[in-house]
Design brief:
about 800 residues; alpha/beta; five-stranded antiparallel sheet; disordered N terminus
Length: about 800
């Protein structure tokens, strides 16, 4: 419980002559209010003083009209009148300006005005009397004495002004008496003036004490009320109060403690200055402090005003509430309110806000903040007829790292990616994480089309550099898709959608490139959507079938096996090419189900073929990523009864790149079952000799693009086929050339040393019943020869 203090008392040490005459600034928060009361009390008699002074001017004119020239006397009377009127106006203005508090300078200005007026009245005693003579001097002394008594009576509340006027006029009259030859009268005049000054000072001291006591009684009454309210209000940590000049009064111990200062240090100090701390000198105040100053200036109540307060080297958050206070006459007296430290609550709120707006792993802005920033960029773009852009970034081969090395390594990799992206961004871009391995960039202003290409290339180049994580060197890439407003979209949703479509096209083209949105992507996306919907029901509706293309030996032309090729015929879409629906099935996570159906069907139908004929089934990287894939193969062989040696699984090189080692382990298990492995499309993608050494492939398939190139005598294609054949022979592997369509191509392949051939020359893909019919009707079909 804290008890607010009253105003700092004005004791006898503050009532010295220098303090009373405003020659020395006094301590204490009540002086300004007391000085305001002094000015107000003196101003009550300002009209009477005005009239008295003007009458005195008239009497002076009557006294000297015969002895002094009219011009000199009239000039003096005019100056005296102007001075009296001016002083009256100054005092009335001070009464208005300093109704609630007056600085010491106000008293000093009042004293200076009185001093000037005293000099005007001293002029007749010094100038007129020596010319006029003794009789005139006596009459003027009587007039002066009357004025000094009157001034003492009506301006005792403002002793500085009273002291200035009486001192100057008294000294002038004493000099006049001495000059006229009456030194004792001069001493008497000084004694008379001294008595009046003593009376003035004594009256002023009594006035100050009275006003201090009166204010203290009122403040103590209000303080009791505040203390009771603080007891009742458990939410108020401390009380504070300022006067009409916004300076602290009634400082409570807890308020001083919260500021890290003693009560004496802050009593009488401006509230805003104390709260500003070090920023007071720089003028760079927090906006909330400006708000507080404005509310205090407008004298309006406020509640729960949140304000940052610098205390030492730490920033605290205070919550202030206050209402203006007025006296019984309705005059504004300042503010009184409560304050509490809400630093912990503010920190929690800031943490919650950060969690809501920033990604916890990378520290980058999250999806919410990205959407907000994009909305502002679109608004700015529409307002100023400019362009903004949205870029989506997807990491290539990140899933392989995450699956094989674990999520901690994947998370650390994402942190490094975020750091690289930060280093690229300027004030024109905001980079954030959408989730998983997807990032986004909002480009607030796009000066030209090359800007996005340059930025995208910087991103791809930076993210493709090797990473060192836990003493491992990791390689990934980045695909980027972008959309530009207002050309490609005008809303947040359509911008994101357009950039996403462009990103998909980038990945579809192999990744590690930037692709900008084109209107045709929406049509393709809709086609993909329709195909995906139809794919999800294709299995249960029995819309898939398998065709088989023969693979023959190069020398004899005998059938060695068949490659199972899936076909899809939909009632609405008709016949859909595998090149179109297989990628969609992989993206939609349907390839596992479809692949298992292909495997079971191929094994079952191969049981109708001669026992030396194998069947080859293509396997995708997504299937090998499934830990249950080996079980699915075992189940297919078991249910069909097909010997493992008659099953050949074909995989592409991308399996190893995307899976980072897990695929090799899976293939080793399949080899252990006696299943043969074939490496398809060798040389067209991420060719590496490492996995050829680690995995015992039975066959390497040469892509048809090399076969066609060799048929046209392209040196590169011929060299590649020769190298593949030589390498396969040295590793004990067979080679199969794909895409042979003419007799010349077949002869060329045979001469290059390939062991097996597959292509239209020997047969197009055929239905299972056609394969069975081939063997039943023509047993010699086991040797198709080169004339088929």
């Amino acid at each position: 419980m804290t008890t607010p203090n009253s105003h700092t008392q004005i004791d006898d040490s503050d009532l010295s002559l220098l303090h009373i005459l405003s020659l020395k600034e006094a301590k204490g928060s009540m002086w300004d209010e007391v000085r305001a009361e002094q000015i107000a009390d003196s101003s009550r008699f300002s009209l009477l003083r005005l009239i008295g002074m003007l009458v005195a001017v008239a009497f002076a004119g009557i006294i000297f009209h015969e002895a002094i020239s009219p011009l000199l006397l009239g000039g003096w009377a005019l100056i005296a009148t102007l001075g009296i009127v001016h002083m009256h106006r100054v005092q009335k203005q001070q009464q208005n300006d300093y109704s609630r508090g007056a600085p010491i300078t106000a008293m000093r200005r009042d004293a200076l005005s009185s001093l000037i007026l005293g000099a005007i009245w001293a002029t007749p005693a010094i100038v007129f009397v020596p010319t006029a003579g003794l009789g005139y001097g006596f009459e003027f002394w009587v007039l002066s004495a009357t004025m000094m008594v009157g001034i003492t009576a009506i301006t005792a509340a403002t002793p500085a002004a009273c002291f200035s006027f009486i001192t100057l006029l008294c000294v002038a009259n004493a000099v006049m008496a001495v000059w006229l030859g009456y030194p004792l009268s001069g001493l008497g005049t000084l004694a008379f003036g001294g008595a009046l000054l003593a009376l003035c000072v004594s009256s002023a001291r009594d006035f100050i004490r009275f006003k201090t006591a009166e204010t203290t009684i009122v403040d103590k009454s209000e303080t009791v009320s505040l203390l009771l309210r603080e007891f009742e209000d458990a939410g108020a940590d401390w009380l504070w109060q300022i006067d009409f000049a916004r300076r602290l009064t009634h400082v409570s111990p807890r308020f001083a403690y919260a500021l890290g200062k003693e009560m004496e240090e802050i009593e009488g100090k401006p509230l805003v200055q104390l709260l500003a701390g070090d920023t007071w000198d720089t003028g760079r105040f927090p906006s909330a402090l400006h708000d507080l100053a404005e509310r205090l200036n407008r004298r309006e109540s406020f509640s729960n005003l949140l304000l940052p307060v610098q205390i030492g080297s730490n920033t605290h958050w205070w919550e202030l509430s206050a209402s203006p206070r007025v006296d019984e006459k309705g005059r504004f007296m300042g503010f009184r309110g409560v304050a509490s430290d809400v630093t912990l609550e503010q920190a929690s709120a800031a943490k919650i806000d950060r969690m809501a707006r920033f990604d916890s792993l990378t520290g980058l802005p999250n999806r919410q903040q990205i959407n907000e920033t994009l909305a502002k960029a679109l608004e700015h773009s529409a307002q100023w007829k400019s362009r903004c852009a949205f870029m989506m970034i997807d990491l290539d081969r990140f899933k392989a790292v995450n699956d094989t090395l674990g999520h901690p390594v994947g998370d650390r990799l994402l942190e490094l990616v975020a750091n690289r992206l930060r280093s690229i961004m300027t004030n024109n871009e905001l980079c954030g994480r959408l989730g998983g391995d997807e990032f986004a960039v909002v480009v607030r202003d796009v000066p030209d089309t090359s800007y996005l290409d340059t930025l995208a290339n910087q991103i791809i180049t930076s993210l493709s550099r090797p990473y060192e994580v836990d003493q491992q060197t990791l390689y990934i890439g980045a695909s980027v898709g972008s959309a530009t407003a207002p050309r490609d979209a005008r809303t947040v949703e359509t911008m994101i959608r357009s950039a996403d479509l462009a990103l998909y096209r980038s990945k579809d083209k192999g990744g590690n490139i930037h692709y900008a949105y084109e209107p045709g992507l929406h049509v393709q996306a809709e086609e993909r959507r329709v195909i995906e919907i139809a794919l999800r029901k294709a299995l249960e509706r029995g819309e898939f079938t398998l065709n088989y293309q023969p693979v023959v030996t190069a020398n004899e032309g005998a059938i060695d096996g068949f490659e199972a090729l899936i076909r899809w015929t939909n009632p609405d879409l008709g016949s859909v090419s595998p090149a179109k629906f297989i990628p969609i099935a992989e993206d939609a996570r349907l390839i596992g189900q479809i692949g298992e159906w292909v495997l079971r069907t191929a094994c079952h139908e191969a049981m109708n073929w001669p026992s030396n004929i194998r069947v080859a089934v293509n396997v995708s990287a997504e299937q090998l990523a499934d830990p249950n894939f080996v079980s699915a193969v075992v189940s297919a062989l078991s249910h069909s009864g097909l010997p493992p040696r008659r099953l050949e699984l074909e995989v592409t090189e991308s399996v190893f790149v995307r899976d980072g080692g897990g695929a090799a382990q899976m293939l080793d298990q399949l080899l252990g079952l006696g299943i043969r492995l074939s490496l398809d499309d060798f040389g067209t993608g991420y060719s590496s000799l490492g996995y050829l050494r680690e995995t015992r492939f039975s066959t390497i398939k040469v892509d048809r693009s090399f076969v066609q190139g060799a048929a046209h005598n392209k040196a590169e294609s011929l060299a590649i086929i020769r190298a593949v054949v030589a390498m396969a022979d040295s590793l004990g592997m067979s080679t199969t050339a794909e895409g042979a369509e003419t007799e010349a191509e077949v002869e060329m392949i045979r001469n290059l040393g390939c062991k097996k051939i597959q292509g239209y020359y020997f047969g197009r893909p055929m239905a299972a019943q056609d394969v069975n019919e081939l063997f039943r009707a023509q047993p010699e079909a086991l040797n198709l020869g080169y004339a088929s």
